[in-house]
Amino acid sequence: MSRPVSSGACDACVARSRLLSELSGHLEHSRSRIEEVLALGNDELLAGLAGERRDELAAGLAGLDVEAERERARAVGLETICRCDPAYPPSLRGLAAPPAVLHVAGGRARLLELVARDAVAIVGSRRATPYGIEVARSLARGLASCGVTVISGMALGIDAAAHAGALAAAVDEQAAATPAATPGASPAATSAATVAVLPGAASDPYPRSKRALHRRLVATGAVVSELPPGSPVRRWTFPARNRLIAALARMTVVVEAGERSGSLVTARIAGALGRVVGAVPGRVTAPQSASTNALLAAGAHVVRGPQDVLEALFGADAPAPTARPAVRRELAALLDALGGGLPTAHALARSGLGAHDGLAALAELELSGHVRRAPGGGYVVIPP
Amino acid sequence: MLARIATFTIDGVDPRAVWVEVDIHAGLPAFTIVGLGDTAVRESRDRIRAAIQNSGFEFPARRITANLAPAFLRKAGPGFDAAIALGILAASGQVRARALGDYAVFGELSLSGELRDSPGALAVAEGARGAGLRALIVPRERAREASLVEGLQIAGVPDLRAAAAVLAGAPPPPLPEASHEPRARGPRPDLADVRGHARAILALEIAAAGGHNLLLEGPPGTGKTMLARRLPSILPAMTLEEAIAVTRIHSLAGLHGDGLVSERPFRAPHHTISPAGLVGGGSPPRPGEATLANHGVLFLDELSEFQRSSLDSLRQPLEDGRVTIVRGQRALVFPTRFVLVAATNPCPCGYAGAGDRCECAESDLRRHRRRLSGPLLDRLDLLIDVQRPSEDELRSPPCTTSADAAARVADARDRQLLRLAGTGRRCNAEMDGALVRRHAALDEGAAQVLARAYANGTLSARGRHRVLRVARTVADLAGRERVGRVDVLTALSLRQRTGADVELAA
Asked: Cys-Cys with B198: which of A355, B99, B189, B434 at CB 3.0–4.6 Å?
């Protein structure tokens, strides 16, 4: 990092990135071996995949207007860094095929700073349960508040919850720093410790429904992709994206994953790269926890909360996450019952609270951040 | 010879005076009715002719013209039969009417001369009194209903002969006994039949006490409909004025027997209902379910299945307590003051929040929420989840009875009436921002809780306002003048989900 940060990607890398985008449809056929295929050189890719379009694409590549490519990226607010740049994240160099160019929304300098810290990937199923969502969110929040960067894929479910948790930690910090802030106006944090790696272009939110999250990530974190603007999302881009998530993080935590979840790809690559793999235990009967429990059985670290992650990363001298204020004794029984997975009504009955006190108690636990109202009106416990 | 007699037509839900003028003079036998009548009015010629002959009178073989004035008003329905027939009898001298100008006549004729039961007698009676008439002749079945209007002599007659006799000066027949009142119906739904559901019952009580609209959310078969049906049983008893208003509208819609409607209406339209069916419409405009539920409960089961346009049409009725239907140059106003209770599954499969049974993806949930009309959710003050009661709860005694709950509700309503006297509002749900600020005085603990919920983003500004209104009601139920900490916490736990909540929960 002694060299001053250069202005962007070099010509060869820009061309390589454009080639992948152009070959996107052809790469679809090799998606099962995408890591090996991406490691091939330009000529080999063209020879092996392009078929009839080979000459046309080769000519296009040779005559590529690299400056126009750079301008296209700049126009949508993307900054770039290529693997020829010494500032390129070293964690990615261990990959069989390090991405030629990283397209960054939210600032190249901020991305480099965020991935230079200790980073943890939190990934999991799109079809997550409220339990999984809560765990992902609180895990990310706890880790981000300890200065760990949370990396994920901005997908529905677990991924989005992880980003949201890290963003919330930044808001917490901001609020703590300026206690006199106007109540209610949630202060916009200037920097959040989270990075999203997208399967399409970094400037295009994917999935579209996470536009708002994308906006916040660009404003305070970083969004990154190896594909240039305008690249379509295809089936092969997901495992390709997952290898970046696994490589950028020192540890990958799978929160919930069904039988064939893409997050297993992330965990596998992380293992192959020699990164730490962790999983959150779930009920043995829950299909959404089938693969996480299987990972645990295969020797992954048990992750019950931020503390487990910190210990896996730092050993004994892990920083302690800030403890949550204790609950009043009357509420503890209710919290325990809810934490045991009882429906709200039964939990209230178990804790001996009447309807009236019960409603007030639930609101109190919600206010103090111990529980959250899930869809369906039931309450789920937010893990410490 | 000319005779003139008053009757009424129903315009929307309001009576309008119609003068029936009958002229008989020499000429070829003919019978024409003029005055913008619909098909039923045109067909009434044949009914009237047969009814007069079969009652032992003579149908004049001369030129008969009946005019329904004012001529610009569109007249619908068979309710003019009796008035026209009596006009013919008077004009032809077969009835020596002594005070024709004092009487209004209302009813449909059968061919045999009977006065058939026709809807709307109460509205007609109100119109007759408003027009300064002294007496009203109605079909016998409607006499009790019409007699609810004071200061009007009611003659409930079985047929045309009896009606003619009354016009000629015979004493009106006595009011019929309340033979079929109360109507035979099943036992009234009572909260004493409910096991478990303690929180939902409390939410019902709060909804009843403050007039708040309520959303029940829960898996299929957990008792949402069963609970909603019990809301009328704990609402305060209707005042006479309210009861008459309800009776008038229900009579028009042909919904009840005779006499006064004493129970608050409970209307549960099916989810395929059109906007016109829900808030009123058609030609001529008829009141919709929202108006039939006036002073009672409108229950929308499977809220997410309703057409978006139907739900959106409820916005004005919910906001203003009435709906305006414009047809041509006329605007009709239907009253729509009701408590809205809506029920919905939490997700398409119905089992979100019920353990691990839910199989819906986040996108399914999102779609489901989108189907619920946002502006409508915004007007539902309370949200409560309804879950399957446990085995223990099913064996335990009921939480409360409707009578006990109704007494608490009535007390709370009395406090509100006293507090809101002179503002034109009657319950906490109707308070606007200024009234909430004036009347929802928080004690210290309550203010702290609210400030915290607002500061950490749990509440939006609008949500805060709504929580205050509900907290005011909770305090009223407990008999507290100042809103306490527990009241605000209770209101918070019943708050409607905001956009932020949905985003977080997804």
From this structure: A355
